[in-house]
Amino acid sequence: MTAIRTTYEEFIRTFGNVLFAVLLFVVWGIFTMIGVIVDQGKDPSVYYAAYPAAIARAILRLGFDNIYHSPWYIGIIGLILISLTVCTFKRVIPARLPPLRPVKIEKIPLHAQIDLRGEESDVRARVERFFASRGWSVRKREFDGVEWSFADKHNWARRGVLIAHLGFVIIAAGTTLYWAKGFSGDAAVVTGQAVEIPQTHAIIKLDNFRYTIKPILTKSGMVYQPIDYVSHVTVTGKSGIARPMTVRVNHPIDVNGTLYYQASYGFAMQFALRHDGKPVPGLQDVLLKEGEHVDIPGTQKTLVYDRFVPTIDKTTGMPAPDPRVSNPGVILTLDQAGTAGASALVALREPTDLGEGWSVLPQRYILYSGFEYRYDPGIPLVGIGALVLLCGLIISFYFLPARLYARIDARGDGRGCTIGLAATTVKGYDLFETQFQALVEELRSSLEPPGPSTTFRPAEAH
Amino acid sequence: MNGHLQADELLMIVSIACYIIGALALLVYFFSREVWLRNLGAPLAIVGCVAQFAQLVVRYELTGVWPLLNLYGSLSLFAAMSVGIFIVFAIRYKAWYAGGFVLALAAISLAYGVTWNEGTMPPVPSLQSYWAKIHVPIVVSSYAAFLVAFVFSIIFLVKYYAEKRIARETNVASHAALADDDLGEQRISVRGETPAIEAAAAAGSPLAQWLASLPTLSQLDVIVYRAIAIGLPLISLGIITGAAWAKEAWGAYWQWDPKETAALATWIVYLAYMHLHTRNAWRGLRTNWVSVLGFGIVVFTYLGVNIWISGLHSYKM
Ligand code: HEM
């Protein structure tokens, strides 16, 4: 039992320590940076090409090639959430919402003493009026027969930290909701064709895709600037009714709660394969998108459609930088038994010999449009969490809760009384020093005449 | 068109000139405390900053293209915001002494930005969004606030280590000044006094007299805190607006794109700063080192990622 209690106490002590939270932040920051520096989600060969073998192996073994979804990353966020919860209840709430209690005035670095003539009760009433008129909320308590006045400013803002922390928790809940219930994917649709989205069964037919590229002469030469990508689609959602819609970058469409975005585009190519100069049934109209391939029957050859070349430079016979289509071609690779073979640039409607009696003819290109789709039920929560977090930050940084302690004692010589004043804030004393000085000065002059002496001695507190 | 561009370029030349002369004046002021130098440098900072904002507005008016979508425009705004935020601090905390460093950094960013000036280009589709007008200025302003914090952190650290060194050399007990001495909660207070520097200054050391003329460590620390208290909510809002934009443009509010991820790392560092700043024993020396580190990461996020790492923010689509 004691062992359990000790472990529990140890857990609370560790996770309730801000420095431990900062340590977790450091680890979180390092993991985040690793993901910035190390390319994410690439093929293992990419890491072996980019790093010495030992480092590449380590990256792959530790999951740093997909770090944001690795147990490390999820684990550290989990630990931060635990630490945040423990800290909030065990530290923040007790520290930020302290009860009213007397203090040793001269032990508090921000303190001052004002001596003046007058009745104790009268002085107290004037001191309290002074603070109340400046927006401080004044409360009185008696401790061991001594009456204390407490004045609080921005007391409500003591909860700023709690709000910031709550915001983070809400964001975490929102992202978890996506993991639990959301989905995403992509679909490339060739003009005139339709695809069914597996998760939603919506049908997206691409009626037409259009892009605009503008040549602009800059100081460093001609730049071909993309200006617009537009897909005209017909969408059949849950209602079963087909509706025409337009998808552009920055203008997604919403189909029954799932959003579809314009993500990419490309050129599908219709190839005709011939054997011994004759058309081959089934291989007369092979439609491939960039990166796709077709196996050549009866051989160990695979024809890969690498990429579309919008313009072949007529003089050099090489791909021109102009991305607008004028004299198009394709880059094809002929793989042999799984090993990459040579690549060739082939003009549209120009037959090319593939060996063993086979030839290929790129017949015509058809634009396709790439969509990403995503259903994320966590978005409203993430949005709310972000706003809550932001409010928490603003409250924490711009409203400094401060508490003044005033103790008024009749002087022994019966000639007046002494006001002892001290101030604490939730962020140490430095931030409040100037204000405290000004406040004490104002109080002193408001209580005069006469005010024989004021002592402000922050430095003496050391 | 040509005439217009000259107006634009003229304003740019005015601001760079103001920053360079202002930086020199205020740097010499930092060391010499000749008041006329401050009286020269401060108006130059203000004129340079105003000229820069005017330049951005003129450029937008003339080209019709939002000027912040390339590194040139963004660095222009960064320089202008850094100087702008600094001016507010300089007036509020009588801190013109730090202006030379801020203006010099602004001039360097501006000059570097000019090397990225490719002329006017219409934005690529993903940048054709009203979010561009909201997100970019917010993020750039947060970086500017962190620059101001960085400069004051450096001054803090210079004074701090000078105090330590002078204390060692002169055998003055200076523990009161050293924020890293954890002597318990109560002691840490209106700290920042530098007794060794004061003593050496009284004994006639010119270096110590100069050091003593700087604000106390606690005053410097408060300025750094205030600058980060501007930067952190701004970068949070920048990440939030960036996420909102990403959701609209790319489908997911968070894609782990290197730029947004590096911004997250920056956010984490300044979050760590704020947490450490709540701890008496950590406030001061260590938090100011975190501020210096944070600015290093800001530079990486702002420039390093663009230059070395490609991602969605390389704006291909
Ligand atoms: C990652 C999300 C977090 C955010 C956005 C966040 C935000 C904040 C903010 C804005 C403050 C106020 C700082 C100030 O007043 O100067 C604060 C303070 C604090 N936070 Fe966090 N925090 C986070 C995580 C954590 C975690 C994991 C812990 C757990 C140990 C923690 C513990 C504290 C404590 C103890 C304070 C100071 C309370 C005090 O001493 O009055 N925070 N936090």
Q: Helices and strands of chain A: which structural class?
A: alpha+beta
**Category from helices, strands and their pairing of chain B:** mainly alpha
The biggest sheet of chain A, with number of strands, parallel, antiparallel or mixed sense and barrel status, is:
7 strands, antiparallel
What is the count of distinct domains of chain B?
Answer: 2
How many extended strands of chain A?
A: 21
Please mark out the parts of chain A with pLDDT under 50 across 5 or more consecutive residues, or reply none: 456-462
What percentage of residues of chain A falls in helices of 4 or more residues?
25-40%
Outline the structure in words.
The complex is a heterodimer of chains A (462) and B (317). By secondary structure, chain A is of the alpha+beta class. Among the domains of chain A are: 2-95; 105-154 and 402-457, TATA-Binding Protein (2-Layer Sandwich); 269-364, no CATH class. In chain A, 32% of the residues lie in helices and 36% in strands. Chain A has helices at 2-15, 18-37, 44-50, 53-61, 71-96, 120-133, 160-181, 379-398, 433-447, and strands at residues 111-116, 137-143, 146-153, 183-190, 194-196, 203-218, 221-236, 242-248, 253-255, 258-275, 278-279, 286-288, 293-295, 301-309, 329-336, 343-347, 352-355, 358-375, 402-410, 417-425, 453-456. In chain A, the strands form four sheets. In chain A, strands 4, 9, 10, 11, 12, 17 and 18 form a seven-stranded antiparallel beta sheet that branches. Chain A has a six-stranded antiparallel beta sheet with strand order 2-3-19-20-1-21, covered by helices on one side. A four-stranded antiparallel beta sheet of chain A has the order 5-6-7-8, with no helix packed on it. In chain A, helix 2 packs antiparallel against helix 5. Chain A is elongated, with a radius of gyration of 37 Å. The model of chain A is unreliable at 456-462 (pLDDT under 50). Chain B folds into two domains: 1-123, Four Helix Bundle (Hemerythrin (Met), subunit A); 126-317, no CATH class. The radius of gyration of chain B is 21 Å and the shape is flat. Chain B has ten helices and no strands. Chain B starts with a helix and ends in a 9-residue tail after the last helix. Chain B has 317 residues and is mostly helical. The chains are: A alpha+beta (462), B mainly alpha (317). Chains A and B meet through helix 2, strand 6, strand 7, strand 10 and strand 18 of A and helix 8 and helix 9 of B. Bound molecules: protoporphyrin IX containing FE. Protoporphyrin IX containing FE sits between chains A (18, 21, 80, 83-84, 87, 91-92, 95-96, 161, 164-165, 168, 389, 392-393, 396, 426-427) and B (271, 274-275, 277-278).
